[in-house]
From TrEMBL:
Name of the protein: DUF433 domain-containing protein
Region ranges (Disordered): 66-94
Compositional bias annotation for Basic and acidic residues: 66-76
InterPro entries per record: DUF433, Homeodomain-like_sf, WH-like_DNA-bd_sf
Domain of life from the UniProt record: Archaea
Pfam families reported for this sequence: DUF433 (PF04255)
Length: 94
């Protein structure tokens, strides 16, 4: 069975497929929200089909954790959007 791991210094600690930088959330989004077949996702991300299904199983077996990961991503995107719409004022020289 493919291991799903969390390492604080890789992908911000999001759950990912061991020995990759492919997050569980990314696999889920491609399959469930992107309407891609698991076999196509495996091919696109250079994963085995078993790794794709392990990521999907992990997503569904850990709904609270995945909700928190998604919330964290949404918060980061909101912060980036706000900062890009309101850049800091340039420093004035005296």
């Amino acid at each position: 069975m493919t291991a799903i791991v969390r390492t604080e210094d890789v992908l911000g600690g999001d759950p990912r497929i061991e020995d990759t930088r492919v997050s569980v959330l990314h696999v889920y989004e491609l399959v469930a929200e992107g309407d891609h077949e698991p076999v196509d996702v495996a091919d696109q991300l250079a994963l085995s089909l078993a790794e794709v299904y392990s990521a999907l199983a992990y997503y569904h077996e850990h709904p609270d954790e995945m909700r928190e990961v998604r919330r964290s991503h949404d918060d980061a995107l909101s912060t980036l959007a706000e900062e890009s719409l309101s850049p800091p004022e340039p420093a004035t020289s005296s």
